[in-house]
């Protein structure tokens, strides 16, 4: 009964988030794929707007009528239940693989690669550090990150367009935005060398409608614009 009442809300959902946020991009790509119209209201983490909708000031948050859903995994569950479960496989084996990919991303890739390497580089650049200084600063974080990327490479299928089975799943939508950040930075060549399958998959995926329509405002987009100056 509760599910039915939530499904009856025909208002257009609003995503409180940022274009450069990997998790915001995951949710936006999912809604685009499912054909669900939505609005993106820009908010920085820990801003007044973010705190207004998330008790810890994080992004994204989904607002749908009177319903407020924060934390990306909870938003995923909401989308599956209220809009469509197309992104969650029916068979257990593929569903387990999907969950493993998402868990690996959340627990290891974000901590050791996105935060450890990418965010550190971006903050160092913003602080005006030289490339030599940044390179030295990233030696240890890269050493910790390389085994994580190597394990993802081992999980990546030898061919195909998707990370799990023969269909697009939440795994693809969670993993791609993070890899798009990783492969947009100067350290990309280091990770591409140890993860050629993952690199190829990322280049394929970036041509999808969901990736193209959410590209504007991403870190890769910003760096492309800076390179043209």
TrEMBL record:
Protein name per UniProt: Glutathione S-transferase
Family assignment from sequence similarity: Belongs to the GST superfamily.
Coiled-coil positions: none
Residues in GST C-terminal domain copies: 91-228
Residue stretches making up the GST N-terminal domain: 11-87
Record-linked PANTHER family: GLUTATHIONE S-TRANSFERASE GSTA, GLUTATHIONE S-TRANSFERASE-RELATED
Pfam families per record: GST_C, GST_N_2
Originating organism: Rhizopus microsporus
């Amino acid at each position: 009964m509760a599910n039915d009442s939530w499904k009856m809300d025909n208002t257009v959902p609003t995503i409180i988030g940022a274009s450069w946020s990997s998790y915001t991009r995951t949710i936006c790509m999912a809604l685009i794929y499912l054909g669900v119209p939505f609005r993106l209201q820009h908010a920085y983490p820990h801003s007044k707007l973010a705190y207004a909708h998330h008790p810890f000031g994080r992004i994204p948050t989904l607002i749908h009528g009177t319903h407020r859903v924060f934390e990306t995994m909870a938003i995923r569950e909401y989308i599956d239940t209220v809009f469509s479960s197309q992104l969650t496989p029916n068979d257990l084996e593929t569903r387990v693989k999907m969950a493993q990919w998402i868990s690996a991303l959340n627990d290891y890739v974000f901590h050791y690669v996105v935060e450890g390497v990418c965010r550190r580089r971006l903050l160092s650049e913003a602080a005006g550090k030289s490339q030599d200084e940044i390179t030295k600063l990233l030696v240890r974080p890269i050493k910790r990150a390389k085994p994580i990327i190597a394990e993802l490479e081992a999980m990546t299928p030898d061919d195909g367009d998707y990370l799990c089975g023969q269909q697009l799943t939440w795994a693809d939508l969670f993993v791609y935005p993070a890899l798009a950040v990783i492969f947009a930075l100067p350290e990309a060549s280091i990770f591409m060398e140890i993860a050629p399958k993952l690199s190829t998959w990322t280049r394929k995926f970036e041509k999808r409608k969901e990736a193209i329509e959410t590209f504007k405002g991403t870190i890769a987009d910003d760096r492309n614009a800076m390179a043209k100056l």
